[in-house]
Amino acid sequence: DEFAFSNCTHCNEISVWLRGKKTLIYPKITTRAFDLTEVPNHLADDYEEACLVLADSPKASSALSRRCLQSILREQGFEDKSLNKEIQKAIDSGKLPSHIADSLDAVRSIGNLAAHPTKDTSTGEILPVEPGEAEWNIEILEFLFDFFYIQPAKTRKRKEALIEKLKAAGK
Q1: Is the peptide bond before 27 cis (omega within 30 degrees of 0)?
Q2: Where are the beta strands (DSSP E) in the chain?
Q3: How far apart are alpha carbons 25 and 3 in whole angstroms?
Q4: Contact 34, 140 (CB under 8 A)
Q5: pLDDT tens-digit profile of 55-81?
Q6: Prediction pTM value
Q7: How far apart are CA 12 and CA 142, in angstroms?
Q8: What digits encode the pLDDT tens for the residues 110-125?
Q9: Are 53 and 63 in contact (CB under 8 A)?
Q10: What does DSSP assign to residue 116?
Q11: CA 4 to CA 144: how far, in whole Å?
Q12: Number of C-beta neighbours around residue 34 at 10 A
């Protein structure tokens, strides 16, 4: 394959393309647009890296997503000896909406494929982590970010604004 170089019309920086595949190689970008303002930096960093490598390596993206997931679960009090057990604790807690609990259970299976090679029982081939599965991991992180960080922050800000309004009204 040949490389193509161009200047961005917006920032005037150089970009590098793989001509045959029409793939942008540099700078690395992600198509995910999730507001990470309320998410702790160390979690946001792992999430962003998982998004950046998704197209190049679903397996690497899944591993980064699992690392981020484990950090979230531990920070929320679901710490145990393995991510598998931590996911189970989170599911069993009854604190999560059913769509998040169901998705977490699926993440456990996807992550095991990424971390521990599994063979197809009929062909004997090692099963790959597909891009759609790795992307599902990222979506689940977004569900958890929203549930544990974003919605509580929105509620806190609304409550603070209401308290200020009530104070101004003398109540």
Answers
A1: yes
A2: 3-7, 14-18, 23-26
A3: 9
A4: no
A5: 888 888 888 998 999 999 999 999 999
A6: 0.74
A7: 32
A8: 655 555 555 444 555 5
A9: no
A10: S
A11: 39
A12: 17
